[in-house]
């Protein structure tokens, strides 16, 4: 976002500056070019007026040392000096006749004039013109050429006079370009710095607000936002978010109070019912009514479990992070799952290493729910694997079973509260585990296992720490340790 903000502030200014610089350069160059063209055409015409056309056209190769050649050159020198140009005379076929500096032999073709062949043809037709091309001389300056016809007394064009020249303003133009480039670069750097500072003033508080919103979404309603420092829209947004946090915390406090009351009102009768059911079971032991009492006790235990799971899911408590030894954690989870595993004739193996920063109680409860689901789904005499690892800043707990896998129509509702595919399930086990993963900033995923079955993978961020491999691989099943 900072980059986009900086570009949005910087690009229009740079584009405007570039367009203005380009327009100014084109206009200045066009004005200088037109002025130079006009001056060179005037110099060529002046030189043509000063030359004897009949003598010039009769010059032949090897006559550079003759008086005629010297006389013609002498006619060119004053004009060249007065106009600041280099003058030369060529035939229409672009072969040299004479030049003010005496550098080109008579009758020699001048290859450099190939670029101006169309202008020379126009001059041979009687029209004075200037070349369209600027060329760079040996001194590094820009030059161009003006052409004028040289006619005899009968008005016939016998040669073409050229005037090479430059304008001192071209040097100034080059300096202006360099200055403009320097100013543009400096402006771009300054603009980038200003845009970066401006973006920081906007994106930094937005980043803090985003982090606060994520913290609230994870269930942390106790940590207040920072004290208001701005009086703009961002400050208003901060106040709104803080009001929302307070309202959510107040609602959660009310809910906690309501849940505590419900738990008290429900648990007391359940406890009394369980007590009297136990007494009744003792009195009717061995009698025909004993199975009915046993069924009552079973249903009371199931109802107590529903109440406990409901309260666990409804409580919104931020995780209390502390170092958690993953091997000790999975060993405890396997112990808690052993009675159910023995009943289902399923073995539970565990293996863990490393340490994570997490709420130990929440993580244990989530893992117990996942293992119980796996045990209930696993066929008899199969194994449920419980593996925990901490590596690369992440702690993972995987539960693998060999059950029937996940039904396609159930995948979309797996983590929805009270959704279950079991006859007596509460539908809160996976929802609770997902809530724990979200509160820790992690993920919970259920995937198909290769060879059949399901893999439940709970992953949370973990601070790197010195991992301790406690070694070995323990197995827990119907017969306890093995």
What does this structure look like?
The structure is a single chain. With 482 residues, this protein is of the alpha+beta class. It has ten helices and 15 strands. The protein has a seven-stranded mixed beta sheet. Strands 1, 2, 3, 4, 5 and 6 form a six-stranded antiparallel beta sheet that branches. Strands 7-9 form a two-stranded antiparallel sheet. Helix 1 packs across helix 3 and helix 8 packs parallel to helix 9. The protein is rod-shaped. The two termini are 57 Å apart. The C terminus is likely disordered.
What attributes characterize this protein structure?
single chain; 482 residues; alpha+beta; 7-stranded mixed β-sheet; 6-stranded antiparallel β-sheet; 10 helices; rod-shaped; disordered C terminus
Short structural summary:
By secondary structure, this protein is an alpha+beta fold.
